[in-house]
Amino acid sequence: MTDIKIPLRDMRFAMRELLDWDKHYESLGYEDATPDLVDAILEEGAKFCENVLAPLNAVGDQQGCTWNDGEVTTPEGFKEAYQQFVEAGWPSLAHDPAHGGQGLPPSLGTVMSEMVGTANWSWGMYPGLSHGAMNTLEAHGTDEQKETYLTKLVEGSWTGTMCLTEPHCGTDLGILRTKAEPNADGSYAITGTKIFISAGEHDMAENIVHIVLARLPDAPAGTKGISLFIVPKFLPNADGSAGERNGVVCGSLEHKMGIHGNATAVLNFDGAKGFLIGPPNKGLNCMFTFMNTARLGTALQGLAHAEAGFQKSLAYAKDRLQMRSLSGPKNPEGPADPIIVHPDVRRMLLTQKAFAEGGRMLILLCAQQVDRLQKGSEEDKKDADDLLAFLTPIAKAFLTETGLESANLGMQCFGGHGYIAEWGMEQNVRDARISTIYEGTTGVQALDLLGRKVLMSQGELLRKFTKVMHKFCQAEIDNEALAPFVTKLQELNKQWGDLTLHVGGKAMENPEEVGAASVDYLMFSGYAVQGYLWARAAKIANDKLAAGTGEADFYRAKLATARFYFDRILPRTASHAAAMLSGAANLMELDAEHFAF
């Protein structure tokens, strides 16, 4: 299997050249996040991911997790890798020093999460779920809860989960049944069953802190009657250590398609002691802190699988000899040419490259907004919040869809060898498949984008982003080298607004039009957002080449990939637009009983 190499050069391009994180950190007062420190973090993080985590990726897939009488054992090497991770201080990187964190920007934590996910996604889910628990406690926990739980989570000695889904309800949390009965000591007895709980039980940490949605006895029906609770696996002792076993037990592990190295647990709560977070019956509002963190984390999964698949298929395409180039032999001394000379293999490789590098730009743009939310001025925070609200569903759904496409293309580059386990390509596809489903399916994210974020804001959130695109195009309108990019972006920007008005107008007559258009609208939006970022990347590359640079090959590759994206990928928006304009009738006219005979 080809080794994974963390793409540090491209990370630095997105961080420093595209988004100017050095100035960004300075403006927000992140004094410790100097260029030298950031470089040291990147280098050390890459070493850990390449040398420790990447070799465990196949191990986790082959061995999986084992369940025995409620206890779960993780694959060989997982626990030891986690101890190294904790000892190096990685869990505390971007958290408040008041709770033992290092106080570095959240965006740096995102960069580290990308490295971890690319090397070994199933392992990375164990510490990854903890970030959402930490953010939820930070935002909604009491001082006592923060001291008891947050300090241990930041330290990494405890991990966290989110417990939403039940056997009868997934996305529709309004019908969940887990109940919370008040105890005399102010705690609550939590009873119910939660399923699909990633990292829900394992042997890697001293304790697991479950963040659980449940109903109080007098709660109103629906989503307005949901409260949020902390339910630890072991109840904390007075000295902060893990003490008595709580009434939450892993009933089984799911047998699933991929991410075998991560324990996807069924958790049975039998009067387990829990502690209310936030106000009663406002649990779903509090949980959105966790869910938004998780959605951006899942967007990272799409990027991770695109990057891993691209790296492995690129190396294979350079070595694998098959047929001759149609324009004449390129390896005349050998029996055949390497398959990278063939146009269709290049199509697959460039698609993966465009989605991986474009996805990285989008993820880091989102991460930059999280920094602004944490430390910006009030005006800055409002602007960042609006931008993040708009971009989060796009990032989650678009990057996981294109990540899955890239994983499949990577496997295709290998031909029959991609279908067998030896090369790891079929594992990459299996692991990627869940990303379009959990934390809200593509359809759910699409409804959120079009229905809530765009139409319910009267188009305000969309206009904020399209104005940014418009300003870029206006600034570069006379730049002859960027003309192919700017002209197309201007057309796309106008079409985006026109399509929104069209769908919004039809939805006033028939609400089903929103659901009928939503996924095509989201994918159109994703291609447009990445088009804007690729145009900016092309400008940087063109400017560097014009000024003279010692990295001409890097910038020429960036320009070539931008051109490929605009010529070969961006035209997909036309089919999404046509599908939207066709309306809801072609989806709704067939009665349910007549779908099959």
UniProtKB/TrEMBL annotation:
Residue ranges annotated for the Acetyl-CoA dehydrogenase-like C-terminal domain, each copy included: 465-591
Cofactors, names only: FAD
GO MF annotation list: flavin adenine dinucleotide binding; oxidoreductase activity, acting on the CH-CH group of donors
Keyword field: FAD, Flavoprotein, Oxidoreductase
This protein's record includes keyword Membrane: no
Domain Acyl-CoA dehydrogenase/oxidase C-terminal: 281-448
Domain called Acyl-CoA oxidase/dehydrogenase middle: residue spans: 162-270
Class of this enzyme: oxidoreductase
Family annotation (Gene3D superfamilies): Acyl-CoA dehydrogenase/oxidase, N-terminal domain, Butyryl-CoA Dehydrogenase, subunit A, domain 2, Butyryl-CoA Dehydrogenase, subunit A, domain 3
Segments forming domain Acyl-CoA dehydrogenase/oxidase N-terminal: 40-156
Recorded catalytic activity of this chain's protein: 3-(methylsulfanyl)propanoyl-CoA + oxidized [electron-transfer flavoprotein] + H(+) = 3-(methylsulfanyl)acryloyl-CoA + reduced [electron-transfer flavoprotein]
Enzyme Commission designation: 1.3.99.41
SUPFAM superfamilies: Acyl-CoA dehydrogenase C-terminal domain-like (SSF47203), Acyl-CoA dehydrogenase NM domain-like (SSF56645)
Role noted for this protein: Involved in the assimilation of dimethylsulphoniopropionate (DMSP), an important compound in the fixation of carbon in marine phytoplankton, by mediating the conversion of 3-(methylthio)propanoyl-CoA (MMPA-CoA) to 3-(methylthio)acryloyl-CoA (MTA-CoA).
Similarity section: Belongs to the acyl-CoA dehydrogenase family.
Record protein name field: 3-methylmercaptopropionyl-CoA dehydrogenase
Species this protein is from: Microbulbifer donghaiensis
Lineage: Bacteria, Pseudomonadati, Pseudomonadota, Gammaproteobacteria, Cellvibrionales
